[in-house]
Amino acid sequence: MTLIDFKTAITDIKVIMKHVSAMPLPAERALHKLGRDLSLARRKRSISTASMAERLFVSRDTVWRLESGDPTVAVGTLASAMFILCLEDRVANLAAPSSDSLALGLDESRVPKRIHSPKKSLNK
To answer: Domain range spanning residue 36?
Structure first.
C-alpha cells in the first residue's frame, strides 16, 4: 500500500465514522422526537427561532440543532428551552423514581448509596 492509498483509506474511514453514532438507536430516536416536540411547542406559542435563541442566549443555529435532536446541545440549553415553553416540570421528572418502571421492581431500601469498583490486585 502506498502512502497515497493509505491517506485515502484514512479519509474514507473518517467519512464513514461521521455517519456512525455512538448513541443507541432508541436514544437517538427519542432525541429526534423531543426536538420535533419542542419545535411544535415553540411554534404553537408563536415564538420565532430568533426570539427563542435570544431568550436562550444562544444562536439560531443552536435552536435548530436542539429542535433536530442534536445530542451535542447542552442539557442546560434544553432545560432553559423547556422553562421558556412552560414545560420545566417535565424536566424535573425525567428520571423520577415513581415513573421508573425498572426501579419500581427493585427494593429501594436494598439499593446501595454508593457502588465501589472492585480493587485491582497488584500481584498478577
So the answer is: 21-93
CB of 81 closer than 8 Å to CB of 52: yes
Q: In the chain, how many domains are there?
A: 1
Radius of gyration of the chain (CA): 22
Q: Tell me: the pLDDT tens digits for 25-77?
A: 999 999 999 999 999 999 999 999 999 999 999 999 999 999 999 999 999 99
3-class SS shares of the chain: helix, strand, coil, % to 5: 60, 0, 40
Does residue 65 sit within a domain?
yes
Tell if the pTM clears 0.70, that is, is over it: no
Q: What is the CATH number of the domain that holds 31?
A: 1.10.260.40
